[in-house]
Known about the structure:
alpha+beta; Alpha-Beta Plaits; 2 domains; globular
Amino acid sequence: MSKTTGLLFFLLIFISSHVQGENGVMFNNLSQQREVIGEAAFTAKDYKPRLVKHIVLFKYKPDVTAAQRDEVVSRFMSLSHSVRPGESSPYILYIVEGVQNSGEGADNGFEQGFIVTFKSEGDRNYYVGKPLVKTPGYYDEAHDAFKQFVAPLLSKDNGVLVFDFSLK
C-alpha cells in the first residue's frame, strides 16, 4: 500500500467515525458540539428542531421507601412546568412515567421509568445541564436540583440509565 493510499484510508476511517454537524463541522460527541458553537447556541430552543425523547430509568437502593419513590415521581413530574428565563411557557412538551411491568426478565433491576419529550435538541441540552452545560442561565436549575435530590436514593450499581434519541 502506498503512503498516499494509507493516508486516504486513515482519513476515511477517521471521518466515518465522526458525525457531521451543521455547516460541515465535524463532531463526535455533544461536548464537542457545545465547544464549537457555544452554550448559548447549543441550548437555544431552536437548535436542531425535531422531537427528542429522553428516557430515564431508575434502580433504587433496597431501603428506599414507597413514600420516597412517590416524592421522586412528584418532583420529576413537576419538571414539566419548568420555564426558561424570559419565556412564558414550559420548554418540555410532556413527561410520562411508570413502573417496570415487563415479564421479559430484561429489566436489569430498573424499577421506574420516565420519558421526557422535547421540541429540539437545544431544549434537551438546556434540560440536561451539568456536566454537559455548566454556565448558569444555560441549564435548568430545577432539573439540577432534582438530580441532587434523587442521587442518594439510587443504587450504587448503575442506579440510572439515560437514553436519548431524535425522531425522524
